[in-house]
Amino acid sequence: MDVMEKPGFIKIIFDYPFHLGVPDALFPIRLDDDKEKVALIGITAREGVQTFDKGKLIRNRPIEGKTDLKFEDAGTETKGIELCGFGEDNQPLFWVTASKHGKSVYPWFFSEIEIIFPVNHVYAAWSDPTNSKYVNNLSVQFFNKFLLAYRNASQDVFNKYLSESDDFSSYKALYISEFTEEENKKSTTELLMPGLVKQRAFKPYPMKADMKETDIPLIQAKICPPLMTNAKKKMIKVEQVKPLLAGGVGIFSIQIFNQILLSGMERYAMDKDYRMAILEFDTAVEMAIMFFLVTALIKLGKSDQEIDKLFDEENNEAREIQRKGQGYLTTHSKIKRLDEHFAELRKKRNLSEVSIYKSQECNNWNLLVRKKRNAIVHAWEHFGEDDCKKAFGAAQKFIRFIQKIGAETMNVN
Q: What is the pTM of this model?
């Protein structure tokens, strides 16, 4: 956010559709990558249904083929609450109805989140898209660090991290509080003391162009169940899914490496947990290599006991052949052995020799996935969305390349 002349605190309030077992208090937090990024987070347990539309809802109004998002009167005279079902532990779930304009659902137990942090200019939050994104993303980072600490302390994992692009809340409200001339001479850490912050006056910061304080101070608003994603999916063909539902082997099975690849995609797309996604992409590649290597060994007449010994790191014979450069104990060694065994099997079928280890697909995997995996495992290095996206592409292409060669060589994929 650009340095400007009105420093102060921003307060963001939103509902989080999971109950968090912490006392009603303000918790100080600092982001690891920047000592200046400090905040207070308040968690208030809520029971019942809460909506935050101030008599208005945001709706789609198609005009000449386009979608126009506008706030409309919610028809408060007909607004009400109705039971829509039951969730975990038989707890009730409710609809908040607002006439013909829409519905919002909340669970019975949830948390109200309050995040307060300093910025260089409190009125810059909506001056351009970069600033508004900064404010929203920073609040997400603060909350996710809090949730990580809470999970570690409580062992409660029945919750979800927030995403920078979207989250589980139907609204985010924005409030501001300017520093006085005297406060500008003090450090933000000193001003961010919980006792002082509780005494501060915050005013709603509007999102509309006329900037009236009577406007709704929302960063975002959506009317949908908080545990659903508001996205229309691409239709698949019936014949694509039927064989997979029927089970079976080969092309009619969902191999474990494909399941792990999809799990990594969920980490990437839903959780925005880029480090764990990269780890799962690399694991998927290792599982694919192992699948085809073991299959090749079986095709070449090896018994289960012989195969187990080859991959046993405590077996003296396995360690000895690894030392001689012919082992199976590292990922790169496994790829080289896969090359050798594929070559032997392809020769029997009069197929041309193809190298997996020297392929561009293998090189891309090593550069974009394996090296990042090692940096994460050994140094917990951070990687962003672009790194994760490239890692997925490289892992998927390498797996599909191995599958293609495996299908040609052994009629297995």
A: 0.61
